[in-house]
Each structure stands twice: as C-alpha cells, then as structure tokens.
Design brief:
six-stranded mixed β-sheet, 31% helix
Length: 251
C-alpha cells in the first residue's frame, strides 16, 4: 500500500496521542517526534491541541502534506481505543472528492439511516467549541449570537442551544428538532443518521449534505446520505487497521 515517505508523527504527552501515534508509526514506518517545530517530510497529528495546531498551520503555510487524526465520524474511539478514528489529508475533516466509494464498508458498520424527518418544532444549534474557535480564529460567543439572530430572521421556530459540554444528551436534544445548525461539529453526522437535516457554516464532512445558507432554514435539503456515508466509512479506521497500514490506500 502506498505510504508517505519520511512521515513525521507529532506525538504529545496526552495518553490518547501516545496510543494513536504509536499505531500510526507501526502502520506507516514513520518516526515519532515532539510537536515543537516542523520537521522535514509530511506530518501526522492527533487532534489540534498541545502544539499540533501550530504544526498544521505551518504545513499549510509551506504547502506540505499533513494527515490529521481525530475521533471518527461515527462509532468513535473516544477513550476505549475500540472505536474508529478519522484520518484526513490536508484538512481537519473530509470534503467531497471525485472518487467513487463502494458501500461495502459502510454496510459492515450496521448503521441504519432513519428516514428523513420532515417535521419538528425547534432549531437545534450546536455552538463552535473553544478549541475549534481558537484554531480558526473565531469568537465563539459572537458566532453563536450571530447565528441565533440570523436563524430568527428567517424562521419563527424556537432556537435550542446544545453546547458540547452540556449535560443534555444529543439524542434527547434532537427530539422534535426541525434541523441542526453548527459550524463543524460531529453532531451534524449524528443528526443525519437520525434523519434530521443540517446547516453547516464551516469546513466539515457534513457540509455537503446541508447548505450554509440560513435563509433556507424552513426549506432544508434532503439529499442522498448513503453516498456520503459510504465515503466516510473509508475515512475512519480502527487502531488495528491503522497499525496494519490499511488506511493509506484510501488516503
């Protein structure tokens, strides 16, 4: 399988980074280095904290390939290391490309896409997280204020806000939701699985399934989710698959 030559894997002192970066090292033949300065060769980082954000930005400044690893789009790894981790080339999330992805891998996940829900009382807003806001140079509070005002300009539906660290479970918050609005939260993927349309204003995999134009809030898009989820299934991998290097063929 094609693997990037001279890959530098920027490992931090976080336990998750150490586990994931060692898996990348095994499957790529790359070398582990601290995220202190940009080394020669393509880069691999886990997350955007503890210096990894600067490595990504430096790669973008000098137009060098980098691979960003984080929790999967669905069936995520979290702290158990038993789930899936997404890997994207030169971006924080996958964006549509010209490839045709088979549906076999997605079918193996056993994820059932519920029928589109064309009813619901409220608009659910998932604010931009502190880490993402810092990476993109966004004022998180200003973003939320502006988004809520814009939603209210175009619909009479009440707005419900669901912060990432809220005690309210996302699935509960999606009950009776007309749609979900976010910058690039993975909550949009969960909403699409539940059959709830999304509006995504930032760079995110789910953006291809929902317009960033909030003037269409009462006329959301109901598109072909199967094609997108088939593609996403080939953008996320278990640690064992990463250790075996299976991800590089698709990256």
């Amino acid at each position: 399988m094609p693997r990037p030559d001279g890959l530098c894997i920027y490992q931090t002192n976080h336990p998750n980074s150490q586990v994931v970066c060692r898996a990348i090292e095994q499957g790529s033949g790359g070398r582990i280095v601290p995220p202190v300065r940009l080394m020669d060769g393509p880069a691999a980082v886990y997350g955007i904290l503890r210096g990894c954000d600067q490595i990504i930005k430096q790669c973008e400044w000098v137009r060098r390939d980098y691979y960003h690893v984080d929790h999967g789009y669905f069936r995520r790894g979290w702290n158990s290391y038993s789930g899936y981790y997404r890997i994207t080339r030169n971006g924080l999330q996958w964006s549509p490309d010209s490839r045709e992805y088979p549906d076999d891998r997605f079918k193996r996940f056993g994820v059932s896409l519920k029928p589109w829900r064309k009813s619901g009382r409220h608009v659910l807003v998932c604010p931009v997280s502190t880490a993402i806001a810092g990476f993109y140079g966004i004022d998180a509070h200003a973003w939320l204020q502006a988004i809520v005002q814009e939603i209210q300009d175009f619909t009479d539906r009440p707005v419900q806000i669901k912060p990432k660290d809220s005690e309210l479970d996302l699935k509960t918050a999606l009950n009776d939701a007309w749609c979900l609005v976010t910058f690039n939260s993975n909550a949009a993927i969960e909403a699409l699985i539940e059959g709830i349309p999304v509006f995504v204003t930032g760079p995110a995999a789910a953006r291809c399934m929902g317009s960033p134009d909030l003037s269409l809030i009462d006329e959301p898009r109901y598109g072909d989710r199967e094609t997108m989820f088939s593609a996403l299934a080939y953008q996320q991998w278990t640690l064992d698959e990463i250790r075996r290097g299976e991800c590089w063929e698709w990256l």
